[in-house]
Amino acid sequence: MIYENIILSIEAGVATLTFNRPSKLNAMNAHMMNEIIAALEQTNIDEKVRVVVITGAGKAFMAGADIVEYAQQTKSNFNRFQNRGRCLYAAIEGHRCPVVAALNGVAFGGGFEISLACDMILAVAGSQAGLPEILLNLIPGGGGTQRLPKKLGINRAMELLLTGKGTSVEQLQAWGIINHIYPEDSFAEDVRQFAKALAERAPEPVRLLKQLARSAWGGVDSANLAIENQLLETYYLSDAGQQQIQAFCQRSLERSQRKAKTGS
């Protein structure tokens, strides 16, 4: 399959899925989401694949949803986008192989939610992650309100959700969210070596261990995910929600125009 918004490469049992919209900080639109799901499904049935690494091209892992496309969605498009999002996270958590997020840069919104669904997270030193939806007067819609409290604890998760602030990967590692942090100049090679070591393990015990560990963790409740989606939909489609999104888009456009004029 030919992809337009991602790059999928497979070498020595390691499948690397790279978000490839660097000019947009890898912000996810509907087409990109469908490609990510297709790549995850492809690697899940490819017996040569032992490990999946998800990373980004350029300076960002993923800055979240493509807010311009997001703001223009009709109700049916919104519901389709949300439903496909749930398929994406399920494809990560249900993948037979370990799925490792390699945060090469900032991971905000849906980017952080994708990493929270992964089995392990590696990060480049000095980067940040977070769920800034509250700053748009919205709520996360990709399971962030469910996975973050389960992985981080309710008090710390509540602070991050309600402030929307980015948190350093160093702090997230201290809190147990990040597995390893690597220097920028050796990040790609360090990630490659980490994935290579996992790929050398026997595939069937690895599959069973992932299944058992996730069973012990308990995962996220599908009913709670449905509530998250319903609350987001209700607010997103309301007059107040639409006004906030359009205001954010206008501010973003004005910032871009100012940068274009100043050349900075």
UniProtKB/TrEMBL annotation:
Origin: domain of life: Bacteria
Lineage: Bacteria, Pseudomonadati, Verrucomicrobiota, Opitutia, Puniceicoccales
Family matches, as PANTHER family: ENOYL-COA HYDRATASE, MITOCHONDRIAL (PTHR11941:SF54), ENOYL-COA HYDRATASE-RELATED (PTHR11941)
Native source species: Cerasicoccus arenae
Keywords assigned: Lyase
Example GO BP: fatty acid beta-oxidation
Protein's name in the database: Enoyl-CoA hydratase
Family the entry assigns: Belongs to the enoyl-CoA hydratase/isomerase family.
GO terms assigned for molecular function: lyase activity
